[in-house]
TrEMBL record:
Record's protein name: Thioesterase domain-containing protein
NCBIfam families associated with the record: unchar_dom_1
Biological source species: Zymoseptoria tritici (strain CBS 115943 / IPO323) (Speckled leaf blotch fungus)
Family: Belongs to the thioesterase PaaI family.
ATP-binding is among the record's keywords: no
């Protein structure tokens, strides 16, 4: 498990001082991807992977300028495919704000195209 903390800057918020959904998606995309560094080796989840699918569930507004905690866990990682789960919580009380499942593809593993 990798744990990150962050503050969403006001410029990524809306008129209600909640983070824009795109800002939340960007955080999940980046941080769940960084989590794969825990198992990285040359050619194996070494930073060249790409997103196959990023599914996000939004439960509560994510306040701007308030500390949030993002917990990321590798659910599965093979040679070419990996899935990482992310949970975004309010740091002050642990309230779940959003969650994600991030499917990644490693184009480096297994050699070239079969086409």
């Amino acid at each position: 498990i990798a744990v990150f903390t962050a503050l969403v800057p006001p410029e990524y918020g809306n008129h209600r001082q909640s983070a824009h959904g795109g800002a939340i998606a960007t955080l999940f995309d980046s941080l769940t991807g960084c989590t794969l560094a825990l198992i990285s080796e040359p050619g194996y989840w070494d930073g060249r992977e790409v997103t196959r699918n990023l599914q996000i569930n939004y439960f509560r507004p994510v306040p701007v300028s308030e500390k949030i905690r993002i917990e990321c866990e590798i659910v599965n990682a093979g040679k070419r495919l990996a899935t990482v789960r992310g949970l975004m919580k309010r740091d002050s009380d642990g309230t779940l704000l959003a969650s994600c499942l991030h499917d990644k593809f490693n184009p480096v593993a297994g050699g070239g195209s079969k086409l």
